[in-house]
Amino acid sequence: MQERLKELQGEALEKVSAAMDLKELNDIRVAYLGKKGPITEVLKGMGKLSAEERPKMGALANEVRDQITQGITAKQVQLEEAQIQAKLAAETIDVTLPGRPVHTGNHHSLTRVVEEIEDLFIGMGYTVAEGPEVEKDYYNFEALNLPKGHPARDMQDSFYITEDILLRTHTSPVQARTMEKHEGKGPVKIICPGKVFRRDNDDATHSHQFMQIEGLVIDENIRMTDLKGTLEVFAKKMFGEEREIRLRPSFFPFTEPSVEMDISCMICSGEGCNVCKKTGWIEILGAGMVHPNVLEMAGFDSKKYTGFAFGMGAERIAMLKYGVDDIRHFYTNDSRFLKQFSIHE
Q1: What is the model's pLDDT at position 60?
Q2: Phi, psi values for residue 268, rounded to 5°
Q3: Exposed, middle or buried: residue 236 (CB in 10 Å: 0-12, 13-18, 19+)?
Q4: Is the same domain home to 42 and 152?
Q5: Which domain holds residue 212?
Q6: DSSP string of 217-283?
Q7: What are 166-187's pLDDT values in tens digits?
Q8: Gap between the Cα atoms of 262 and 159, Å rounded
Q9: pLDDT reported for residue 345
Q10: Which of 154, 219, 195 is nearest to 330 (CA)?
Q11: Average pLDDT over residues 100-107
């Protein structure tokens, strides 16, 4: 039995030394040290030995096991190291090669304009309000003093889904919903940026989908002078402190009185050029005092509360601010156009 154990030890260590990979090494471990291995078979015959021989044979068996285990462990370390070296050799990186530049993304010019306007008005105490793009006719028109059949509806050629559901034509429904939530109690001070949709032919200055930013203030003793002061701050912050504004009478069903706001041309400084059509002024947005009917429909007492509202197209602001001559550039994803607005500039 002693000779057989020594023979198995030598046989196992010889196979361990010749093993070429970890799988083969594991097979050797199972074959010699497993429950069904030859060493276990030899030890089953210990019952035939005398009481004096059994302890000696047990110690020898443990020694043989330990020798084989140590051999396997040493060989495993060797094979794992060789495996790592082979992998490193196959995946060698030439550190002398020039690095590959990582191109970072840019903020879209429209995103920049919207965020800049949001930051400006948040700094003036406004909050940003949002609403659904698929809107009810009531909030899109009726709650804004545009009942069914009103001729001013034709000014906003709409995408209707059903008789009472449409894609919103402006962000004014957000104002109507916000006023309704306030249940006739002021103050209200919000801006509403978002996409709007109108059935329009796309060209250099028109699009069937565009971004609109509207503002609304309702409180006691709100006057036209508050509106003018707010718009003046906006114009100077967006287009330069030297900008001047003027308000021209206009008409919107949801405001009374209504105005169009112009800013002095930033190209010619009011002298007259092709951009301002030789007038020295550029139309920028529409505004006015909230119509009493709109206040009453939202639950506000029009004798106690007054307010003003304004609305602008983000694309128009961006076109003037960045000198873009075609609104379609904002939506065609031309990388040459977008790269002009790098965040590193």
Answers
A1: 74
A2: -110, 0
A3: middle
A4: no
A5: 109-341
A6: EEETT--HHHHHHHHHHHHHHHH-TT--EEEEEEEETTEEEEEEEEEE-TTTTTS--TTTTTSSEEE
A7: 999 999 999 999 999 999 998 9
A8: 30
A9: 43
A10: 195
A11: 78
For residue 154, give the DSSP letter: G
**Which residue is it, tokens 């034709």?**
154
Is omega for the bond preceding 187 within 30 degrees of 0, making it cis?
yes
Q: How many C-beta neighbours within 10 Å does residue 55 have? A: 10
pTM higher than 0.70 for the full model? Answer: no
C-alpha 190/C-alpha 308 separation (Å) is 11
Query: Are residues 30 and 154 both part of a single domain?
Result: no
The per-residue pLDDT of the chain, averaged, comes to 86
Q: Please give the residue that has the higher pLDDT: either 280 or 215.
A: 215
Q: What is the 3-state secondary structure (H, E, C) of 119-132?
A: HHHHCCCCEECCCC
Q: Band the pLDDT of 248: cuts 50, 70, 90.
A: very high
Supply 45's token pair.
């015959």
Residue 267's pLDDT is 76
Q: Does the pLDDT at position 344 exceed 50?
A: no
Q: Is 256 annotated as a binding residue?
A: yes
Please provide residue 309's backbone torsions phi and psi, each rounded to the nearest 5 degrees.
-140, 155
For helices 224-239 and 314-322, angle between their N-to-C axes, nearest 10 degrees: 40
Residue type, 176: A
Specify the CATH number for the domain of residue 208: 3.30.930.10
Domain membership flag for residue 101 = no
Are 119 and 198 in the same domain?
A: yes
- CA torsion sign, 110 to 114 to 117 to 123? negative
The total number of structural domains in the chain stands at: 2
Strand partners, 311: 214, 286
Lowest mean pLDDT among 38-52, 108-122, 288-302: 38-52
CB atoms within 10 A of CB 3: 7
**53-90 helix and 22-33 helix, angle to the nearest 10 degrees:** 170
Separation CA 92–CA 110 (nearest Å): 45
